[in-house]
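Q: Hi! First time doing this. I have a protein sequence and I read that you can turn it into a structure. Is that right? Here it is:
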Amino acid sequence: MLAGGARRTAVSAPPPSRDDNGIRGLDRVASGGNMASHGDPGAAPPHSPGLGDVDRRRPAHVVRAPLRNLVDEAGAPVVLLGQLITSVLHDPRGFWGDVLDDTHRLLRKILIPSILANAGYSFLTATIVVAVTVDLGAAGRGGTIIVPPVMRMLAPLISAVVVAGVIGTATTAELGARKIREELDALRVLGQDPVRMLVLPRVIATVIITWVTGALGVLVFFIETTLLTTTLSMVSPESYMSYFLGSLTVYEVMANVVRGGLFGLIIGVVCASKGLTARFGPEGVGRAVNQAVVIAISSLFIFNLIFDLILLGLIPNFTVIR
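A: Yes, that's right. Below is the predicted 3D structure, encoded as structure tokens:
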């Protein structure tokens, strides 16, 4: 009777449903997918990947995450520059009032620091030039020696570094704060383009300010080096200015204008891009500001070197001392 009852019980037991099988399969997958841990002597032991093995269970995007982040960091300013150019070409109206407001507001912040930085470097340059020319017995040639470093390197580069430290940080902080407060998303929901409304006027204002501070830096260098050189080396101002203006060419002035504009474009695009991609709250905004300054200044030095190499290759007469 017991055997018959057990047989009837086994026959009357319902078959396992698909849901039960699915749950059991998920349990087996979650427990490692092997039967060795459940007491099966015939199952193979689990294999843990070694140092030289590739864990094939890891997704491909996790393996390539560092490389992808590097490409994203390098490509974000390029993408933003393309958006700015497209926006300007599509409709070059409607943002010039904001450009004037940003230029006036930011120029008041950058004017004094730019003058002080250029004055300090011009004092150092004039002192070195006077010491070298007096030792060589060519004190009257100081104007010829000062033109290449001032026009090609010091004045525009120092002004651009000051702009990156003052205006670039302000741009990144402002856009990053708007990003973490979701103001940029709110503008998109309202049908507005935050790149055109916020980024484009600031980038154009940065280019204009870099031009202005670069020209102001050249003027400060010229005045201070003239006063110091003529005073320390006992050279007449007429002689110094004749050599200075005789060594200065139109191509150098034009190259300086182009260099200043490209410097401002690099600063504006890089700092705006870091602000638009800021994450993780106020701490992320602070990190974005630090990264923007480092990347912008490093890009300025690299671009200045490449620009000088191309310029000297196209116009070899720049190396001639007149």
